[in-house]
Write a structure and sequence with these properties.
Chain lengths: ~230, ~100
């Protein structure tokens, strides 16, 4: 299987690259910086998910090398956890650009290679911040809400190509993204979940493996949150 | 316009239509002809079929190292659709290629 992952140089993206490589798949990653990951089946691209030129360049390379993409995982995202009144509009735009426009731009460019796959999959990342309407995360939650709408509508428009489009909304996981969030805020968030525990990477990969399985061909337009939120 | 002129765009379009027909029901076949309708009341192609055809054509051109986008907003909203028949689509692809080479 050929898997393309954005936001691949750290956190969940990096762990997902390793996860698919461990299963013997070919993986390509995209991130703004270099990757420390070195593996014969891994290829890294530096670029911006919001840049049509960067994304086209990557797809051109994948078209030459792979001919097909089986799984696209739109993991790239940035979180800004600050009160609305203190959020500079430019910061809100950055968050929307990477999460939503990045997902849109990469998915749009990848349709051509995905539709050549036997079991094509697009998997997006949302967050429990959307259903919980988390205060202090207005930009992040709004951008992820856009990703959810994208997921549901793309699922309908791409169904005739056999492409499924789903999203996972992880509950708090120990990654770079939430390292800066105060502990008491995380504790309060966990209290609002049905399962009051921090998630782990394997909770995320479990849902992604479910979406990817050939048997999941009838699963599309779905958002799965971890921790019993929603 | 150097590389583009060496391409027979009409041949590419007709080949993609033929290939699309392989996956279509017998009563929904596209007419393969250099004047044939593509999208509109004289054609059995729905909007999803049109998207498939345009992506096939983009792919066929990409195989010839020609990168082009045929599904832009302007074309979708044009009063006289450039997708209505083979001649208008070929003319539209040509104009897109000219624009690309001018930029």
């Amino acid at each position: 299987m050929k898997v393309f992952i954005t936001g691949a140089s750290r956190g969940i993206g990096l762990a997902l690259c390793q996860h698919f490589l461990d299963q013997g798949h070919q993986v390509a990653g995209l991130s703004r910086g270099k990757s420390d990951l070195s593996h014969p089946s891994y290829r890294h691209f530096e670029g911006d998910v919001c840049s049509e030129a960067d994304v086209k360049r990557v797809m051109r390379e994948l078209r030459k090398d792979w001919k097909v993409v089986d799984v696209l995982i739109n993991n790239a995202g940035i979180a800004r956890m600050i009160p609305f009144a203190l959020t500079p509009p430019s910061s809100a735009r950055d968050v929307m650009d990477v999460s939503y426009h990045g997902t849109f731009t990469v998915s749009h460019a990848a349709i051509r290679l995905l539709r050549k796959s036997e079991n094509p999959r697009i998997i997006n990342f949302t967050s429990v911040a959307v259903p919980l309407r988390l205060e202090g995360e207005i930009s992040y939650a709004a951008a992820k809400a856009a990703v959810e709408s994208f997921t549901r509508i793309a699922a309908k428009e791409l169904a005739d190509f056999g492409i499924t489009c789903n999203a996972i909304g992880p509950s708090p996981i120990e990654t770079d993204l939430i390292r800066s969030v105060p502990k008491d805020k995380i504790r309060a968030l966990l209290e609002r979940q049905a399962i009051h525990k921090m998630g782990s990477f394997s909770d995320v990969s479990n849902v992604i493996d479910f979406f990817v399985r050939p048997e999941s061909r009838m699963i599309t337009g779905q958002i799965i949150y971890l921790g019993g939120v929603g | 316009m150097v590389q583009e002129n060496s391409l027979d765009l009409q041949k590419v379009v007709l080949a993609c239509m033929e290939s699309l027909n392989l996956a279509r029901d017998p009563d929904e076949q596209l007419t393969i002809d250099k004047e044939a309708p593509i999208f509109g009341q004289d054609s059995p192609l729905d909007s999803l079929g049109l998207v498939s055809l345009l992506i096939d054509i983009e792919d066929a051109l990409a195989d010839e190292e020609v990168e082009i986008s045929l599904s832009d907003e302007k074309a979708m909203s044009q009063r006289h659709s450039p997708y209505r028949d083979v001649p208008t689509l070929v003319a539209y692809i040509n104009s897109q290629l000219e624009q690309e080479s001018a930029t």
